[in-house]
């Protein structure tokens, strides 16, 4: 059925089909289109613009939520992708969310409070912030839940550094 697809996308499509068939509720649709570049002014204390709703500095391992051009949460410790699994830099939009997600790629590993924003299943989610991820942005439990509750499908995510 999915014979011509490879890698993370084939797994994402298969998982999406299984989710649809199983009747699980998933918010949004995964299309992973990058957001257009912004010419908005920067937000003090972050590397992101006032249009961002979520901001990540990969080099500093920090994340923020931004509301009306001002920091509403952060800086927070965050884990980003390690060598060969880097979190992609750029401007994105939230594509879908799943509160109790499990990774189809990594042995059914839990990804609580998952907010997907980039191609290849890249998401914010709860996890260990002290070790590199496989590309996702891991946050501590409380902040991961707040990101999940605050960000909506279409929210702008900016990844820098």
Automatic annotation (TrEMBL):
**What are its GO biological-process terms?**
cell wall organization; peptidoglycan-protein cross-linking; regulation of cell shape
The biological pathway it contributes to is: Cell wall biogenesis; peptidoglycan biosynthesis
Q: Which residues form the L,D-TPase catalytic domain?
A: 52-160
- Species annotation: Pseudonocardia sediminis
Q: Return the GO cellular component terms, semicolon-separated.
A: extracellular region
- Name the SUPFAM superfamilies for this protein: L,D-transpeptidase catalytic domain-like
Its lineage reads: Bacteria, Bacillati, Actinomycetota, Actinomycetes, Pseudonocardiales
- Metal-binding: is it a keyword of this entry? no
Residues of the active site: 125 (proton donor/acceptor), 136 (nucleophile)
One MF term in the entry's GO annotations = transferase activity
Question: Which domain of life does the protein's organism represent?
Answer: Bacteria
Keywords on this record? Answer: Cell shape, Cell wall biogenesis/degradation, Peptidoglycan synthesis, Transferase
Q: What is this protein called?
A: L,D-transpeptidase-like protein
Q: Which Pfam families would you find in this protein's record?
A: YkuD (PF03734)
């Amino acid at each position: 059925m999915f014979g011509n697809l490879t890698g993370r996308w084939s797994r994402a499509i298969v998982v999406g089909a299984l989710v649809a068939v199983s009747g699980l509720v998933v918010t949004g649709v995964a299309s992973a289109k990058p957001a257009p570049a912004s010419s908005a002014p920067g937000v003090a204390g972050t590397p992101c613009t006032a249009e961002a709703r979520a901001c990540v500095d990969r080099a500093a391992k920090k994340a923020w939520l931004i509301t009306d051009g001002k920091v509403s949460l952060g800086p927070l410790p965050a884990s980003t992708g390690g060598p060969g699994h880097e979190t992609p830099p750029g401007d994105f939009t939230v594509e879908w969310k799943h509160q109790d997600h499990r990774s189809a790629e990594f042995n059914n590993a839990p990804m609580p409070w998952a907010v997907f924003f980039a191609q290849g299943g890249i998401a914010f989610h709860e996890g260990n912030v002290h070790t590199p991820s496989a590309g996702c942005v891991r946050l501590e439990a409380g902040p991961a839940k707040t990101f999940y509750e605050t960000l909506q499908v279409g929210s702008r995510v900016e990844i820098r550094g």
